[in-house]
Amino acid sequence: MRRASAADLEDLLALETRCFSEGDGLFHRRQLHYLLKSPHCAWFIAGHFEGAVCVLMAANGRRRWGRLYSLAVDPQYRKQGVARRLLAAAFAWLREQGVTTVRAEVKSANGAARHLYADLGFTEEGVLPDYYGPGDPGIKLYRPL
Q1: SS3 of 22, please?
Q2: Pairing state of beta strands 63-73 and 101-107?
Q3: CATH number, domain at 129?
Q4: Whole-angstrom Cα distance, residue 101 to residue 22?
Q5: Average pLDDT by consecutive 10-residue portion of the chain (145 residues)?
């Protein structure tokens, strides 16, 4: 497990392409480049790009929270604990930044991800109609750190 840098751009782009389609929230090169340089963002890489996680720090005045922005695990490495290790690293980084809660969104039809998030202590807080496109709702998630 390691923190990603700008030098990881091409490998992250390839991982995103293996894991997501346009309708799933696929990041493009420009978005990844921006996120890799942002001081409010951290990417963690598992192994040699078996998976990656992106978390953001957000604030509105005095309240701060983290946002799980992307979790991508190469299909050939799923169900091997990669996502759990990535999230553990991301949560540790957020705690180091003084963040006490994390939020996320997930496709309502993604049963595997919803099960993983529930196992890791996330609570489903509501439905986001058409979040991933017309007729494709998302679920709002919340987890204390």
Answers
A1: helix
A2: parallel
A3: 3.40.630.30
A4: 28
A5: 94 93 82 93 94 87 85 94 96 92 95 96 97 93 96
